[in-house]
Write a structure and sequence with these properties.
Blueprint (H helix, E strand, L loop, with lengths): L7 H8 L4 E3 L2 H12 L7 E2 L2 H10 L14 E3 L1 H7 L6 E6 L2 E7 L2 E3 L3 H9 L7 H8 L3 E9 L4 E2 L10 H11 L4 E6 L5 H14 L3 E8 L9 H13 L8 E7 L7 H13 L4 E4 L14 H4 L10 E4 L3 E4 L4 E4 L10 E2 L2 H8 L12 H13 L9 H6 L4 E2 L3 H8 L1
Helix pairs in contact: 3-5, 5-6, 9-13
């Protein structure tokens, strides 16, 4: 298992005299993921050969299946001002503090329009992933990174932050040998709940790992705190037994790459020790760029990834069945009430009386509490939230780390 974390004594030596580059939130999160092994087998930001191979054939240059490029971008004048080149070491800083040391192996350029088209299947700038790719600066810097100053996770996320090693250890303590992962960036409604329960049954699993994506947000998204605490509520309220359900967080900025991101999610959750990964409709999609079940179909084209896919159809509320129903079983499709994001949002905002078994009242209460405690009155991201929220992770002075290590 990859873990590239320097001790405090090693870190103090490593950072001495190095030129430094301040990195934005996305890159800081990816440094953390690389260093703790979430992105294994990556040990650093990808070189040109790996990026090109991922773009063209969805593998690293060595043939390992990998679907999303992990790159560190920088402006040419920024790099020339630092005077760095291949073979040099570079200190990456975040929030004004040291974060990681990078051993530069290559500085290169790549056709961003080609990269976007290959990864997202479109060149339309309306696609958020295409927008992200085009916003990258004109040079990519490749090389392994070592974390020299691990960030501190702020409440309430500190309860749910665990490294791959720690998650695997918790599985062993619980006696879980079959674990099904649930990728989420939403507050859980009953469709999500039954998606998890159905996948648990289909996999014959010992437990479910909710892996909540925490990362870049835009106005209208659910606030991170409501997502994580809403899922934990399902366990706390007894809708899942304590010994079959865990909630964790993954620091990741969604690419909305549909089927390619589904593959990426499977690979990351394999690194956490999961044996199965559930995939429903429109997994990691956006707009109408991908087919409803494109994330199911892509696995037919791939070799064994070391983690099994649990592919499920849609769950909805059926007034005739008087409960949540499954597309593969319910015969009242003409009367179904879709558990759409718009409908659930209207419930949360108080404009609609919840249908039975649509949104658990316990979850609704938690979400409303999060709105007041963390969301400045709203469970959805606002400009105020983006500007004034407590960050998920904070950097500390390296001297503080030395004190805590002693």
């Amino acid at each position: 298992m990859i873990e590239r974390i320097a001790s405090s004594a090693e870190a103090a030596k490593m950072v001495r005299g190095l030129p430094s580059l301040e990195v934005r939130d996305q890159i800081a999160r990816e440094c953390v993921n690389i260093a703790y092994g979430f992105f294994s087998p990556l040990q650093g930001f990808m070189n040109r050969a790996d990026v090109d191979s991922v773009a063209r054939q969805m593998t690293l240059a060595n043939g390992y299946v990998w679907s999303i490029p992990i790159v560190l971008d920088a402006a040419p004048d920024e790099l020339s001002g630092l005077g760095v080149r291949s073979g040099d070491s570079l200190l990456l800083t975040h929030q004004g503090h040291p974060l990681a040391v990078m051993e530069i192996e290559e500085i290169y350029s790549y056709d961003k329009e080609f990269l976007a088209r290959q990864i997202y299947g479109t060149a339309e700038t309306a696609h958020p992933g295409v927008q992200r790719t085009h916003s990258y600066r004109d040079r990519f810097v490749a090389g392994p990174v070592t974390l020299v100053n691990p960030p501190v996770m702020n409440p309430p996320f500190d309860r749910f932050w665990r490294t791959p090693r720690q998650i695997r250890e918790s599985f062993a303590q619980l006696g879980w040998t079959k674990v099904v992962a649930h990728q989420t960036r939403n507050v859980p409604h009953s469709g999500h709940e039954w998606l998890m329960k159905g996948a648990w049954l289909a996999a014959g699993a010992d437990g479910i790992l909710v892996s909540a994506v925490v990362g870049e947000k835009k106005p209208g998204d659910y606030i991170d705190e409501a997502i994580v605490l809403g899922h934990q509520c399902l366990r706390d309220a007894g809708f899942f037994r304590q010994d079959v359900h865990q909630t964790s967080i993954l620091l990741w900025d969604m690419r909305y790459a549909g089927p390619r991101e589904a593959v990426f999610h499977a690979l990351v959750r394999k690194n956490l020790g999961c044996t199965h990964h559930m995939f429903g409709r429109d997994h990691a999609g956006v707009g109408n760029y991908y087919g409803t079940y494109a994330a199911h179909q892509i696995f037919d084209e791939l070799p064994d990834l070391g983690i099994k896919s649990v592919l499920t159809l849609e769950w909805w509320y059926c007034p005739i069945c008087a409960g949540v129903a499954y597309e593969g079983l319910c015969g009242h499709q003409d009367q179904k009430q879709e558990l759409s994001g718009t409908y659930i949002r209207s419930i949360i905002q108080g404009g609609v009386e919840p249908a039975p078994l649509t949104l658990r009242p316990e979850v609704l209460e938690v979400v409303q509490d999060c709105a007041q405690k963390y969301g400045f009155g709203s469970p959805f991201v606002t400009e105020t939230y983006l500007q004034d929220r407590t960050p998920v992770m904070s950097m500390q002075d390296m001297a503080c780390r030395c004190c805590s290590d002693t």
